[in-house]
Amino acid sequence: MKITAVESFVLAVPTPKPMALQYPQHKLVVAEISTDDGIKGLGYSLVFGGGGAEAVQVYLETRLKPVLLAEDPLFVERLWERMFRADMGIKKQGVAAYALSALDIGLWDVAGKAAGLPLYQLWGAVTDRVPAYGSGGWSRYSVEDLIGEAERYAALGEGVRMMVDVNQRLDVVGNIRQAELLEDFDLVWYEEPVLDDDIAACAEVAHAIRIPVATGENNYTRFEFRDLIERRAARYLMPDVCRANGFSETLRIGRLAAAHQVAVAPHVVHELSLHVVGALSNGFLVEFIDWMPPDLFEQIPQCTDGHFRIPDRPGHGMALARGAIEKYRSR
Question: Taking the mean position of all CA atoms in its chain, how far away is CA 118?
């Protein structure tokens, strides 16, 4: 099998209220991979809020797409290495990582379809049912918006507990003081306390507070996650498959975490992250943000009683709905 074409484009998708108060739209950088066997793979990276999506597509088109053309898409690991090393002067973070992620996700979709298996089974399944947590509550919400969103999530299942996301806003001292005030709430975790670049500060917070720390949505490679683990900077790691260089690197991060008894709860894109959690013994939760319009994808996994059933369709199981490209394409 050979890759015959890679078509990429950007979709600009409006968000519903109350999320629209904080993020009026998200953008998807999409890569459709065609092969001479007729199998097509869909890859995409969700760019939260949309900033930089066009730059991601340009890097994908000009630097990474040429690496894949005429290659065998089933050699996913080999192609990942070639893309990761395509520009040694550009670290595979930010724009470059989003671009590589979209292509890696598309390659794995081809591999799953060729094998006739959903990805979590192709990788060695642990479970086909994954628990979720509801996310939201951004700073521009009114009190009524916040309460309404919380009530909708609470209706999805019983035994609700809470998490707090600092969103990189505080320094070490501010986090220690805030965490002390929150101890009585029996929080599941205390998320992204400091700038994600400052692993030393994250470790200092983790060692000083009594709430488990979660972080990682803005870390991009297994090497960064290795540092988080070795410094004992978090008990929960949150790689984002659209930022952490795709399924390939996210799985490596997950298995590295398993060797240290650290749980993995991937960031957003639950429809893709389900396969990762379903294939990892230390997979914990997926993050559910109810923002997708019903005409974006053909079938979107539904949350029932606080859990998602992983789709049994070959590959990752996602396909753009008829007319979605025409309706949402911005580039």
Answer: 18
List residues bridging with 132 in a β-sheet. Answer: 286
Residue 151 is predicted with a pLDDT of 84
Q: pLDDT > 70: what percent of the chain?
A: 99
Nearest of 152, 168, 170, 169 to residue 160 by alpha carbon: 152
Amino acid identity of residue 311, one-letter, is P
Task: Kindly state the tokens that stand for 230.
Answer: 């070795």
pLDDT 10s digits, 171-208 = 999 999 999 999 999 999 999 999 999 999 999 999 99
Contacts of 277-281 spanning 24+ positions with Cβ under 8 A: 277/127, 277/130, 278/120, 278/125, 278/126, 278/127, 278/128, 278/130, 278/310, 279/119, 279/120, 279/123, 279/124, 279/125, 279/126, 279/251, 280/126, 280/251, 280/254, 280/255, 281/126
Q: Are strands 303-304 and 307-309 parallel, antiparallel or unpaired?
A: antiparallel
CATH fold of 3-116+322-328:
Enolase-like; domain 1 (3.30.390)
CB 82 within 8 A of CB 67: yes
Tell me the β-bridge partners of 40.
Answer: 34
Residue 129: strand pairing partners:
309
Q: What is the dotted CATH code of the domain comprising 120-309? A: 3.20.20.120
Percent of the chain residues topping a pLDDT of 90: 92
Q: State the chain's mean pLDDT as an integer.
A: 96
Per-residue pLDDT at 156: 63
330 pLDDT above the threshold of 90: yes
Q: Where are the domains of the chain?
A: 3-116+322-328, 120-309
Distance CA 307, CA 305 (A): 6
Task: Tell me whether the omega of the peptide bond preceding residue 18 falls within 30 degrees of 0, making it cis.
Answer: yes
Note the pTM of the prediction, 2 decimals.
0.97
- Strand 40-47 and strand 25-35: pairing? antiparallel
Decide: helix, strand or coil at residue 255: helix
**How sure is the predictor about 153, in pLDDT bands with cuts at 50, 70 and 90?**
confident
